[in-house]
Write a structure and sequence with these properties.
Number of helices of chain B: 0
Distance between the termini of chain A: 36 Å
Strand content of chain B: over 45%
Number of helices of chain A: 0
Structural class of chain B: mainly beta
Largest sheet of chain A: 7 strands, mixed
Shape of chain A: globular
Oligomer: heterodimer
Radius of gyration of chain A: 13 Å
Number of strands of chain B: 11
Helix content of chain A: under 10%
Radius of gyration of chain B: 14 Å
Shape of chain B: globular
Order of helices and strands of chain A: EEEEEEEEEEE
Largest sheet of chain B: 6 strands, mixed
Helix content of chain B: under 10%
Chain lengths: 113, 114
């Protein structure tokens, strides 16, 4: 089954404790992206990747890191989480240029205390 | 900058029709998307418009006017399961390096009542 998976689905952590949210897709998509979703603000892009070893900042990259060592995986790293990073996070993937539909993962609800 | 506006909430009756409007002001335009998102779930793709006009897909239709920076999503024969948020998103960049970057509106929550 074609899908985007994220882990963990739910996480409660404390300020400053490094964490990684994993994202994996099995559709051989070039393009992958991370979004955060907050009430009233919609989905905002954090980072995106056009292909292996090619990443770039989205609209709200501060406090986040990403890597793309393999085509299928695109982990989101919070080196020192803070309470303002409490949010619902979605990973998405699509074909590269010209691809229409973005496929979203199930989401990760993160709470930073 | 990019600005995408859509109403926050709409209520409609089962079996009726609802139209969700979206206006956008972006530095470029390379397609407009509509996604459906049920509470606590991932967004799922509904429609894509890149040229002016109406795209119909079953009970859902989407319209685009590029000159007016305007789109709408039309939901016909509403069912209870259509209660969800509907997200309007614009792919603004024509630059290949930006890939499929989407800018989303805040979403419109549609409540379908019996």
């Amino acid at each position: 089954e074609a899908q985007v998976t994220q882990n963990p689905r739910y996480l409660i952590t404390v300020t400053g404790k490094k964490l990684t949210v994993t994202c994996s897709q099995n559709m051989n998509h070039e393009y992958m992206s991370w979004y955060r979703q907050d009430p009233g603000l919609g989905l905002r892009q954090i980072y995106y990747s056009m292909n292996v070893e090619v990443t770039d900042k989205g609209d709200v990259p501060e406090g986040y890191k990403v890597s793309r060592k393999e085509k299928r995986n695109f982990p989101l790293i919070l080196e020192s989480p803070s309470p303002n990073q409490t949010s619902l996070y979605f990973c998405a993937s699509s074909l590269g240029s010209g691809g229409v539909e973005q496929f979203f993962g199930p989401g990760t609800r993160l709470t930073v205390l | 900058g990019q600005n995408i506006d859509q109403p926050t909430e709409m209520t409609a009756t089962e079996g009726a029709i609802v139209q969700i409007n979206c206006t956008y002001q972006t530095s470029g335009f390379n397609g407009l998307f509509w996604y459906q998102q049920h509470a606590g779930e991932a967004p799922t793709f509904l429609s894509y418009n890149v040229l002016d006009g109406l795209e119909e897909k079953g009970r859902f239709s989407s319209f685009l006017s590029r000159s007016k920076g305007y789109s709408y999503l039309l939901l016909k024969e509403l069912q209870m399961k259509d209660s969800a948020s509907y997200l309007c998103a614009v792919r603004a960049s024509l630059i290949k390096a930006a890939g499929n970057k989407l800018t989303f509106g805040g979403g419109t929550r549609v409540l379908v009542k019996p």
